[in-house]
Input
Amino acid sequence: MPQKFTSIIPSKPSRGGDKITPIGTQQINSAPLNLDRPTPPPQSSPITKTSSDPLNQSVFADDGYINVNDAINFKIRDVVNNRVLQFRCTVSNLIESSQPTWNQIDYVGRPYPIHIYKGVSRTLTFDFKIYANNEREMPIIWDRINYLSGLTHPSNYSSGGYMVPPYIEITIGDLYKNQFGFISGFNMSIPQESAWETRSGKTKLPHMVDINLSINIIEDGLKSPLKKLYGFEPKYALEQQDKQSRG
Output
């Protein structure tokens, strides 16, 4: 989620001078042509150099680009292999679902059941759009998407051939900071408005990709309404802790 978009299209195309006087024509009121003005030297056709986003110069953010400034940081860290994917994208439809589990017990002769609380599970789902600004970013972005999709597969294999689970940590601004969990669903779609690379000798890939992720959150400790569930410090919980420490 960039802080400021930099368009790769120049705001005002360079056309040389503001006035173009065709040779062999006269100005208004039959004023003579200014033939004493020196003819400017021929110029080569300007070449627009589109610089890549610093965030899209490497597949992994830990390859020297971990401190790239962004308005809202969006990172996914492969905990097992210690690699960080940082995306420049737009996040939408973010939904967190907490599903408590209760067991119902029915007793003979009792019309009302008894419920026993067993626990709770948290699931985070959201969409985000990835796009390439120029051809140099295309392989970087697609390598990153390939790695993200691979985080639904085993992260590694032990010496005995056993699968190592692909645990991750996700950061989205101050809402989720290094939140531990695993990807439970990865869905990729190509938007209808996306163009494809069609030039000869280039890998034929789309320029835009829509990703839908589902992440099961694994808590790192015992939680309660007074405990921190998100990346920021809840004011109410801090006030209650102060009261308990004073009283």
Q: What stands out?
A: Residues 54-222 form a domain with the Elongation Factor Tu (Ef-tu); domain 3 fold (CATH 2.40.30.200). The CA atoms of residues 80 and 207 lie 30 Å apart.
